Amino acid sequence: MSLGAFSWNDLADLALAVFLIAVGLSLAYAFVRLGGTLARLSSFIKGAHDEVLPVINKVGGSVDRVNAQLDKVDQVTDSAVDAADSVDTAVRAVSLAIQRPVQKVAGFAAGVTHGAAALRVERDVRTAVERGKEAAARREREIAEELRRADESER
């Protein structure tokens, strides 16, 4: 083949061959770089796996311990609520036990006071006794009403 027989088709084939060689070399370089990147990524993932799993295990253990402590706190608060309910029941029982005698004593004191005042003013024993009984009954009703209102306001 002589130099003069070099045609445009031969030039196109030569250009295509040079282009394909350049593309092949570029792809080979890119694949080598990609392989290095994938190797570093694999190494990073393995390192993260080795470091993160123990941390996750420790966090899981910490969460378990926190949950155990929260269970204990829950038991303590339940016990405190039960104790408060018991104290409330005891206070209500004592209150009910002394409520009626207090009403009677207050009524008696009001009756004696009003009866004595009526005796001084009217000088009649029967009227003084009636006024004293009325005052005692009124005072007992007032105290019962006050206790009822106080009980309703607590609820």
Report on the structure:
- This protein is mostly helical and 155 residues long.
- The model has no long low-confidence stretch (mean pLDDT 87).
- Helix 1 packs antiparallel against helix 2 (125-154).
- The protein has helices spanning 8-122, 125-154.
What topology does this entry show?
Blueprint: H1 8-122, H2 125-154
Helix pairs in contact: 1-2
Work out the radius of gyration: 51 Å
Strand count = 0
Task: Outline the low-pLDDT stretches.
Answer: none
Q: Terminal Cα separation, in Å?
A: 116 Å
Overall 3D shape: rod-shaped
- From N to C, what is the helix and strand string? HH
Question: In a few lines, what is going on in this structure?
Answer:
This protein has 2 helices and no strands.
Keyword list:
155 residues; mainly alpha; rod-shaped
